Amino acid sequence: xxxxxxxxxxxxxxxxxxxxxxxxxxxxxxxxxxxxxxxxxxxxxxxxxxxxxxxxxxxxxxxxxxxxxxxxxxxxxxxxxxxxxxxxxxxxxxxxxxxxxxxxxxxxxxxxxxxxxxxxxxxxxxxxxxxxxxxxxxxxxxxxxxxxxxxxxxxxxxxxxxxxxxxxxxxxxxxxxxxxxxxxxxxxxxxxxxxx
Length: 196
Description:
Layout (H helix, E strand, L loop, with lengths): L17 H19 L3 H5 L11 H9 L7 H22 L1 H22 L9 H11 L11 H20 L6 H22 L1
């Protein structure tokens, strides 16, 4: 005979990491819009390229390009990493810092693409992914010591990006990955320096 136990634990869905979940939702909606508009929404808002500075959408695209994705596989590859790494970072650094990392990475990569690659249409969250990857290696940063994991990730990651940029033609912006990684690294160093 079973009895109801008032102290029995109940499983509840927890909406942890509101920034990461919000970012994922915006990326998902932007992909659906792109599919429905046959890419017009990506061109208009969710990608960055050289356009007139008199056009207000130019400034939105400096940030909006990180939400756009060219296909389901492009979306899934980026969002999978963001959902794995992002919640751990949001727990450690907080919502405000996560929004700042995303915004700074988007703006820096958007501006560099706008200035130096005027005929390249850049979109996707891969810069954010690599910012998160490098930032995650700072979780064990203590007493001014640089973790070996950070050195290994940085060397392997930068080496792989340089190799891909030189020897492979895969339409992926390796420079965006490197810039994203640099933003994550700078933020990690600065944040840990402040806490010391």
